[in-house]
Amino acid sequence: MTKAQVLRSLNYWRGIMSLGDWDIEFEPVDADEFLSEAGIAAYADVTYNVATRSANVKIALKRDKACIQRSIRHELSHLLLADMQDVSNEAAQLLGGEAATLVRSRTSDSGEVVVRKLDRAFDKVLGKAGEE
Ligand SMILES: [Zn+2]
């Protein structure tokens, strides 16, 4: 996909997911993967600031169209959970210590589970649409 096609798809899904209140910046990466903020190999990543409603979606472009589109949906789905993640981060900060680590990791892990379920739901719906 070209950068313009990815941007169009990102804006399309931004509308579908009612993320119009977010200012989303697209950062293309001319590779098949890169190191994420967390320092692990990734195809895509999203970082955001809930207070300013701004996000940065980084996507590796040297993959097939279906993978890139799935990454777009996946990273935008994380934004649907951003407010909850933010509340969890604030609670973790108040708790401090091991409780903070536990709250952060449990929220992050359960958020990833929800996002992956959304991935599968989108795949099923889009797969069926493609069959018709
Ligand atoms: Zn994820």
Question: Roughly what is the average pLDDT, rounded to an integer?
Answer: 92
Order of helices and strands: HEEEEEHHH
* Helical run tally: 4
Q: What is the subunit arrangement here? A: single chain
Largest sheet: 3 strands, mixed
**Strand runs, count:** 5
Q: Which hetero compounds are present in the coordinates? A: zinc ion
What is the CATH T-level topology? Answer: Zincin-like
Poorly predicted regions are none
Label the overall shape.
globular
Q: How many domains is the backbone divided into?
A: 1
Describe the protein in words.
The chain is α+β, with helices and mostly antiparallel strands and 132 residues long. The chain has a single domain (3-131), classed as Zincin-like. Helices cover 60% and strands 18% of the residues. The strands form two sheets. A three-stranded mixed β-sheet has the order 1-5-4, with helices on one face. It has a two-stranded antiparallel ribbon with strand order 2-3. The protein is globular, with a radius of gyration of 16 Å. It binds zinc ion. Zinc ion (ZN) binds next to helix 2 and helix 4.
